[in-house]
């Protein structure tokens, strides 16, 4: 008596179409674009700069290694670099252990 009858809905939902599907995936696409410009692209640029720096290493360059050692390059091979840390002390490191090239004369000023 006091409870009304509940009937199931017979009409199906309308098809959202192409624009409905696009708006569903728009946040996902936007998030990927933002991640690309904020994370992936700068990392690729940095890797490219490091590779060109490693290829350009030459005898006499002043460098910093990953461990923080400063020195002058005395010998360069395909995969290794010999760095003179102090007078008469040379260390052999891998090329990818060199993180930065210093301007000429930096070691004299230290």
From TrEMBL:
Q: How does it sit in the membrane?
A: Single-pass membrane protein
Task: Give the UniProt entry's GO cellular component terms.
Answer: plasma membrane
Q: Where does it reside?
A: Cell membrane
Q: Where exactly are the transmembrane stretches of this chain?
A: 22-40
Report if keyword Iron is assigned: no
Going by the entry's taxonomy, the superkingdom of the source organism is recorded as Bacteria
Q: Which Pfam families match?
A: YajC
Alphabetized UniProt keyword annotations: Cell membrane, Membrane, Protein transport, Translocation, Transmembrane, Transmembrane helix, Transport
By its UniProt entry, which SMART domains does this protein fall under?
A: YajC (SM01323)
InterPro entries in the record: Preprotein_translocase_YajC
GO terms, biological process:
protein transport
* Family label: Belongs to the YajC family.
Q: What is this protein called?
A: Sec translocon accessory complex subunit YajC
Originating organism:
Massilia cellulosiltytica
Q: Which taxonomic lineage is given here?
A: Bacteria, Pseudomonadati, Pseudomonadota, Betaproteobacteria, Burkholderiales
